[in-house]
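can u pls check wat happens w/ FE2/S2 (inorganic) cluster
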Amino acid sequence: MKKKTDLRSAQWFGTIDKNGFMYRSWMKNQGTPDHEFQGKPIIGICNTWSELTPCNAHFRRIADRVKQGVLEAGGYPVEFPVFSNGESNLRPTAMFTRNLASMDVEEAIRGNPVDAVVLLAGCDKTTPALLMGAASCDIPAILVTGGPMLNGKHKGKTIGSGTAVWQLHEEVKAGKISIEEFLSAERSMSRSEGTCNTMGTASTMACMAESLGVTLPYNAAIPAVDASRYTLAHLSGMRIVDMVWEDLRLSKLLTREAFENAIRTNAAIGGSTNAAIHLKAIAGRIGVDLELDDWTRIGRGTPTILDLMPSGRFLMEDFCYAGGLPAVLRTLGDANLLPHKDALTANGKTLWENVCNADNYNTEVIRTLENPLVDDGGLCILRGNLAPRGAVLKPSAASPHLMQHRGKAVVFEDFDDYKARIADPDLDVDENSVMVLKNCGPRGYPGMAEVGNMGLPPKLLERGITDMVRISDARMSGTAYGTVVLHTAPETAVGGPIAIVQNGDWIELDSANGALNIDISDEELQARLDKHNAEKPVNPLIAQGGYRSLYIEHVMQADDGCDFDFLVGCRGSDVPRHSH
Ligand code: FES
Ligand code: MG
């Protein structure tokens, strides 16, 4: 147990000298009496609130509840803002600023007199950004997410965030519904505050955080507008104060074992492919070795039992009522499919202690292992001469008949080329073709946008074709679906083999054996690569300077989690120098 004099904040507020005067005096301009912030755990509330991040726009109210909990438990709460990555508005993609946000979080925590932090995150990139930044400081931290939106309801049907956009837009292109009908779903899809209600990346990362043990149990699924969300925020505020005295730092939670639990959980929930990138980045910050092939070793063979869109039928609100993530984890644990039941979590109990009595109230939503949604839902890691450093496919969102497929490439040089030609009636493409999209990787886009789930050519949609094999160095939204090979590494912009694919090349996808190959000889492949690399232009954005040039020059490839090379690692929370 820590003593008052051991508190990190005592280095600021606890000294009888000029420095102590300066730190204390300016805090007092907020009307705070001495006893409120001296000798107590100072709890930072790291808030990604922003009205430009609609998914996180209710966070000041959540922060208020966290503060009540902190005060009740004898701490002193201080709320501070950090960069907020809103998925829906930010161009060229919120992924572009995930690392920027993580730097903001890391430096804000380290530089300030906080003994611990409550991380308020929700929209996709905010959760990994906050965990990455906090992990690099390694102080006690607990995450509270904002919760999902209520179920979308449109013309008598339940519709899911994002997923409905992809589906309805394909119907427009197939001539089945009008553009007016399409637009009329806008308001009915987003009915309340909160994050996407599908098992998109936000919900996935909330589940990842819960399975990693950095939230209180049940955090992931409680809807944003449910009173329980505020109760959980209050309880998290209370708990973080004890975590200070117990010195329960992130490194004690974010262990290799915790990441293995998360990988297994991702398969069971049909989680987003983005988790492969974000978990790697978080692991890198805390010093845990995590490889792409861990997803094969630990995740493959695990059934997807959660029947949520985009893979299945239901939404996060239904998931909450069915029992939430603890019910999924219990199902796994009862069948010995939870690799590390004894992993420690934020409430001081093991993961298994938290979930061993969790009930499943609806076996249509949280299915049984005997009746899964997908028999083997673990992310499929592919390697081969087209992806020497790997690529990712989400089986639960793919068409079984396309998981083993050989087809001729139809190549788009970049996303603009795709948009310009996809609707061309003369495009030489049929349902057996393999669509290949280049130049959408971390450096190339830049930011690795979620454009990998290219919509199908309208002339095929009109014929009732609903899926084709698509390959790119891009990501796709967690709300998207299809037989879509993503994160192909190395990417086009660094001269990966995807750069040399030509129209008409035969490509073979063999998911069962984790293989992705282009059917040309090694000599031909090398000759094409040499030619490509000799002609490859320098990205003009680098010369423009600013954050974009920093990003392009330092972002790592997808298999390394797309972190900046200079941000990997835990740098601790010590700051030996005072500011004056
Ligand atoms: Fe924010 Fe989906 S856009 S969670
Ligand atoms: Mg998303």
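The first helix runs from residue 10 to 13.
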